[in-house]
Design goal:
single chain; 172 residues; mainly alpha; Butyryl-CoA Dehydrogenase, subunit A, domain 3; 76% helix; globular
Length: 172
């Protein structure tokens, strides 16, 4: 980031190359829409580039990126609720165990996606950063601009809500 601040765009290209999949993955898990996730990821990198002269190396670039993506996703969610699709793409009829396992996993993924979508934005982002990205509480706190204790509370409330929502959705 310090090299980017000096105007070295090759350094920015390297940051994008290293972190573009992570940015997209977080946004996709949060929003549930690949195209919107792409837009959020691009916006995050654009903001990072514009803010490069003000960057202070108090956190890693990945933590800085998590913070930007999290804020963009939460802001986006405030403007528009995500659309969940639970339709499966048409596939050829195949009774192989691999296909059966795949379909069961898709059903689970749809249920989890629906349950995640019921969570408030900040709880949803904490779940994604903890369980999908594997961040520690301190990293999540830095990324979300809050305290470790607040992350613990958000995660506790999210787990309780997810458990309840998943049980409800499975019974439907």
């Amino acid at each position: 980031m310090l090299r980017v601040a000096e105007g070295k765009l090759d350094a920015f290209d390297e940051i994008v190359r290293r972190h573009e999949r992570t940015a997209w993955r977080i946004a996709h898990r949060f929003l549930g829409d690949p195209a919107e996730a792409e837009d959020i990821a691009q916006e995050a990198f654009l903001r990072i580039l514009v803010a490069a002269p003000r960057y202070k190396p108090t956190a890693t670039v990945s933590t800085y990126l998590y913070r930007v993506v999290a804020r963009l996703c939460i802001d986006h969610a405030r403007k528009k609720r995500p659309v969940v699709t639970d339709t499966l793409h048409e596939t050829m009829v195949d009774s192989s165990p691999a296909l059966t396992t795949s379909l069961i996993q898709k059903d689970r993924d749809v249920l989890v996606r629906k349950a995640l979508d019921t969570l408030p934005s900040r709880q949803r982002m904490v779940v994604i950063l903890k369980y999908y990205e594997g961040l520690r509480y301190s990293e999540i706190a830095r990324a979300m601009g809050t305290t470790v204790k607040a992350v613990e509370r958000l995660l506790s409330r999210a787990r309780t809500a997810l458990k309840s929502n998943l049980l409800y959705l499975r019974e439907k």
